[in-house]
Design a protein that fits this description.
The chain is mostly helical and 256 residues long. 69% of the residues lie in helices and 6% in strands. It is built from nine helices and five strands; from the N terminus they run H-E-H-E-E-E-E-H-H-H-H-H-H-H. Strands 2-3-4 form a three-stranded antiparallel β-sheet. The protein has a two-stranded parallel sheet with strand order 1-5. A hairpin with a 2-residue loop joins strand 2 and strand 3. The longest helix has 35 residues. The relative contact order is 0.11.
C-alpha cells in the first residue's frame, strides 16, 4: 500500500488553498458548488469549501511541500529528534564530569569504601571485583587531572550545543543546518570507526550506520557542496515546484 504523504499531512495540518489572479489558473482551481465556492488544495489536490488562504500571481503561490518533499521533511525531523536526544544526554554527561572534577577526592573515597562493602557479595557470586573491567575503568578516571576533567566537560558541552543547534535547524528544514549536520557528523566519523577497533558493540555499529546514512542522504538529496547541481539547482527545483503545484492541479481539474 502506497503511503499518501499529501493527504495524511492535510488530515493533520489542514488544506492550503490559493486563488491565482490569472484567469486561466483561477478558473481551473476554482469550482462553484451548491454550498459555495471551493478551491483546490495545493498539497493534496482535493477541493475545499470556503475562501482561499491566499491570492496573487501563480508564480507567487506558497511553496507547499508535497510528495517527496514531505517525505524529506519527515526524515529531517527524525534526524532532528535523534540530535536533540543525543544533545540532552551529552549535556547531562558534561554536568556529571564537571561535578566529578570538583569533588574527585570525595567520590574516590566513597567508591573505595563501598567497594570494600561489596567484596563479600561479589565473592558469593564468584565475581572478582579486583579484576573487573568496569571497576578498573572507574578507578582509572580517579587518576585524571582536575584540569583534564574540566576540559573534557567543556568539550562535551560544546559538542552538545552543536547537536541541539542542529536539531532545531533540521526541524525547521534550514539549509544551514543541513550543512552543519554534514560537517559535524562527518568530522566525528573517524573517531567512531576508531572506537569500533577497540571494542565492537551493537550500539556503536547502529550509531555509525545512522550517521553515515544521514551524511549521504543530506549530501545527495539536498544537493550540498555543489553535488547534483548544488544550491542553484536545489532552489530552482523548489521554485519550479511552486509553479507546478498550480499548473498540475489546474491540469488535473481540467481533465476531470
Amino acid at each position: 500500500m502506497n503511503w499518501d504523504w499529501n493527504r495524511r499531512t492535510c488530515s493533520r495540518r489542514g488544506h492550503i488553498t490559493y486563488a491565482p489572479t490569472e484567469p486561466r489558473f483561477h478558473e481551473r482551481l476554482h469550482a462553484d458548488t451548491a454550498l459555495g465556492d471551493a478551491w483546490r488544495c495545493l498539497r493534496c489536490g482535493d477541493f475545499v469549501l470556503g475562501e482561499p488562504h491566499g491570492s496573487g500571481k501563480a508564480e507567487d503561490a506558497p511553496l507547499v511541500p508535497r510528495g517527496r518533499a514531505l517525505r524529506d521533511l519527515f526524515i529531517l525531523r527524525v534526524l532532528a529528534v535523534e540530535r536533540m536526544v543525543r544533545g540532552v544526554f551529552i549535556v547531562l554527561v558534561a554536568i556529571a564530569v564537571w561535578k566529578f572534577s570538583n569533588s574527585q577526592t570525595s567520590v574516590q573515597q566513597f567508591f573505595n569504601d563501598n567497594l570494600t562493602l561489596f567484596q563479600p557479595i561479589a565473592q558469593h557470586f564468584h565475581y572478582d571485583l579486583n579484576n573487573s573491567p568496569i571497576v578498573g575503568t572507574i578507578q582509572k578516571t580517579f587518576s585524571y587531572k582536575h584540569s583534564t576533567l574540566e576540559i573534557t566537560a567543556v568539550a562535551l558541552f560544546v559538542y552538545a550545543v552543536i547537536e541541539i543547534v542542529e536539531a532545531f535547524g533540521l526541524w525547521a528544514a534550514k539549509r544551514w543546518a543541513e550543512y552543519l549536520t554534514v560537517v559535524a557528523t562527518a568530522a566525528f566519523l573517524p573517531l567512531e570507526i576508531y572506537e569500533l577497533t577497540d571494542k565492537v558493540s551493537w550500539l556503536k555499529l547502529v550509531t555509525l550506520l545512522i550517521n553515515i546514512l544521514a551524511v549521504v542522504y543530506l549530501l545527495l538529496a539536498k544537493r550540498l557542496f555543489g553535488l547534483r547541481g548544488g544550491a542553484a539547482k536545489y532552489e530552482a527545483e523548489r521554485h519550479s515546484a511552486s509553479l507546478l503545484e498550480v499548473e498540475t492541479s489546474a491540469g488535473d481539474h481540467a481533465r476531470t
